[in-house]
Amino acid sequence: MSLLRNITSGLRSLFRKERVGRELDEELNGFLEMAAEEKMKQGMNRKDALRAVRLERGNLEITKEVVRSAAWESVLETYWRDVRFGVRTLLKSPGFTAVVVLTLALGVGANTAIFT
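^ thats the sequence. predicted structure below, dont judge the formating
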């Protein structure tokens, strides 16, 4: 897959989560149906074939999470959640935030003054 296609696919999945989720559901269900048809060709009825395929393949939700976590956009989404959590935490205690910002400003200013 080319880099541009990978980037556009990742951005699409970041901004259109519902649609991408539905497409993943459709793809996994289609895969289960194909596997069930193979079992039915071996002589099983439809209900037993679907059950056997689900037992062989495992939980679909775990499969979805594995597919989602394999892409670069899941890392970006995790970082974004962490930044939002940090900002919310700092906004809850403005006194602590002010002390931290002043301490960092003094430290950076002092290092800049000393090493220039």
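The CA atoms of residues 12 and 96 lie 38 Å apart.
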